[in-house]
Amino acid sequence: MSNHLILDLYTELATNPDKNFGWDTGLQNARNHGYKEAWIEALPEEIWSYCAAVGNPFNAGELHEGDSILDIGCGAGVDLCVASLLVGDSGNVFGVDVTPAMVEKAKYHAAIAGLSNITVYEGSFDRPPIGDGAVDIVISNGAINLAGSKEVVFSEIYRVLTNGGYLYFSDMIKDENNLEEICCSKDSWANCVAGTLKSDDLIQLLEAAGFVDAKLLSTNHYKTSSSTVGATFSARKP
Ligand SMILES: C[S@@+](CC[C@H](N)C(=O)[O-])C[C@H]1O[C@@H](n2cnc3c(N)ncnc32)[C@H](O)[C@@H]1O
Fold first, then answer.
1. For the segment 162-178, what is each residue's pLDDT rounded down to a tens digit?
2. What is the CATH number of the domain that holds 51?
3. Can you give the residue range of the structural domain that contains 169?
4. Relative to the CA of 51, which ligand 1 atom is closest?
5. CA of 66: how far to CAs of 13, 61, 94, 165, 171, in Å?
């Protein structure tokens, strides 16, 4: 994995969201993943151009009024804004992203949406600046495959979750119908291809980190290459 390739690619996405990256982005992408029209109408249109979702983690389980949520690899903050609508003024939403331009966009988007319960940190999901047991739910969308060590990321998610808290995430995984096509150009890690795992391997890593009820809920239409497919998972901290 090359960190500068990740920073370069996601700085480009943060500054030029309409560019063709070879994978779906934008409002139509959100609609294709079933993001609700009520959320789309409730947020300024420009925010939706930055939707790089590879699935819909909000289908994995409910966010409740008053919950504290952490989004790791939050990008330009689309899911932070949706989470904020769902938890309301009595809830809190935290985002962590390693790309400074994404962090700036996420803060700007929270501000133009008038959502004051969102806090965005620049940092790595290897060590999110969040206290032990501080959040009820961790969400993530298209980011965990970019981690060099998924073990570290899952143990950090476990650390920040309260007992009984949930992880709901969408990510790219290996398409087991097309394993021969595994690629690898030098920037395919940053493009959500080379860092992907098979769903069973991800579930094993979640269990090794201490999670229970770890499961693949669904796969979807999203592709970053012929050898990958979008998927949504849930897991619970006992
Ligand atoms: C495909 S984008 C998805 C963004 C957002 N979740 C969305 O759905 O629009 C992946 C994001 O992961 C972030 N990322 C990559 N490596 C990271 C790391 N080590 N720690 C935190 N964020 C990271 C990138 O900066 C980028 O914003």
1. 999 999 999 999 988 87
2. 3.40.50.150
3. 3-236
4. 9
5. 32, 15, 13, 14, 26
